[in-house]
Amino acid sequence: MMMMGETWTQLGSAIASIMFFWAMLHQYFPQTLHDSILAYIHRLVNFFSPNIQIRFHEFSFEYFKRSEAYAAIKTYLSDKSSKAKNLRTEVVEDSTQSVVLSMDENEEVTDEYKGVKLRWVSKKNMAPKPSISLYPNTEDNRYYKLTFHKSHQEFVTGTYLPHVLQDGKAIRVRNLQRKLYTNNPSQNWEGYEARKWSHVAFEHPSTFDTLAIESKKKEEIMNDLTKFSKGKEYYKKIGKSWKRGYLLYGPPGAGKSSMIAAMANHLEYDIYDLELTTVKDNTELKRLLIETTGKSIIVIEDINCSLDLTGQRKKEKKKAKAEEVNDPISKLTKEEEEEERKSKVTLSGLLNFIDGLWSACGGERIVVFTTNFVEKLDPALTWRGRMYKHIELSYCCFEAFKVLAKNYLDVDSHQLFATIGHLFEETNMTPADVAENLMPKSLNEDVETCLKNLIEALERAKEEARKKAEEDVRLKAKKEEKGKQEGAQEDKEVKENGVEVVKDDKALAKM
């Protein structure tokens, strides 16, 4: 017992001496000498320690960016957090999980990978903060410390850490709620927390199962999308940027927007809805597109209308109009001048980003153009090397109708289907119009009532199409008759003018 007491006495004396030395060090030694002594002690401890430590800080020191490695490690360790005793909860707005658990400060978990045990600790630096700061203090932030035996250094750096980062990013992508982005006007790009893109949660329910198009075309598009999403190594091998262009065309209501939503849901991609009319010039367009992320679909709807600003300049239109009214010095109004300043994006600027050098920035992007009038587009835009796949979404066919009947009425067959099938062979109606007629308008409308409503709508459309065709024939005949009359009048005038010329020639001969 006396030996044990002496041991504790000596230990207490040693601790008291260390504490006294530590207090003297802080009080009487300069800060530089203090730091040097601590650094020396730290090196001495590391020399005898068999372990290696790696830190992953929350913020990088370049441009005050949040570290992607830290975010991936945090997500990876969230799956291991059940082993920790102290946890913290976080509400993540952009995640499918409303509450996410993570390690609390100074908490520790042990991970085992391929037989190697590794220790993770969550830490936080405590440094004095400035009174006012618009930026995160990189000296005062959280970090993860990884500790492992030095014999496993090559395994950790070459195998384990790539596994953690890849797995963490994959989990984060699965948990992220997909978004629908729209570009902000450039005057809102500057300032604290300014953003070039605003977003909302993307919750469109359209899928290829609910899409009203032919099954063969549907399967072809799905296979093409799946092959693209798995083609990273293939695109790298052939030396092309990992992107693909789609052109969707057809009448209004044919399902172009639903097709885009189904593509996004199939691939689990975000959507960037680019409004070209709010982009001032090619430089702004480039800055916008650079900030789009991978695994995304960039959509430019009604490209023929947007390119009215890019292909045919308004100034040229004004000049042509001035020439028509013999007013070459006609000036633009203030409103038109303002519009000119807002619309300097060119077709070449758009195309250069799509398939030029800038197209290699990022990867796994799909560019989708939509139009109601494909014949009005510039051939440079519809070139197959640029828009790899042209998809026509036309009027509803009987096969597409059956998909809509299943969606809206939950029926696979009905005695009225035969009548509807014959009408679809004789009448054009968009899937949007078909869906509107199939949708029950009250609680009293059953399946048969809705199908009869569609039949009536198809018959009306058929009758309107017949009347329009007759009117077109009548107008064509009237135009041809008018052309004949004008031609006869021109012949008569030529004949009369010829007689007058002959008379004049005879009079000149007599002179």
From TrEMBL:
What ranges does the record give for the region Disordered, renumbered to this chain? 464-511
Name its co-factor(s).
Answer: Mg(2+)
Which keywords fit this entry according to its UniProt record?
A: ATP-binding, Hydrolase, Magnesium, Nucleotide-binding
User: Which residue ranges run through the membrane?
Assistant: none
Please provide, alphabetically and separated by semicolons, the GO molecular function terms listed in this UniProt record.
ATP binding; ATP hydrolysis activity
- Write one Pfam family the protein is assigned to: AAA
Domain AAA+ ATPase span(s) in chain numbering? 242-397
Listed under catalytic activity are: ATP + H2O = ADP + phosphate + H(+)
Q: Which family does it belong to?
A: Belongs to the AAA ATPase family. BCS1 subfamily.
Q: Which PANTHER family does the record match to this protein? A: BCS1 AAA-TYPE ATPASE (PTHR23070)
| Protein name from the UniProt record | AAA+ ATPase domain-containing protein
Instruction: Give the source species.
Output: Quercus rubra
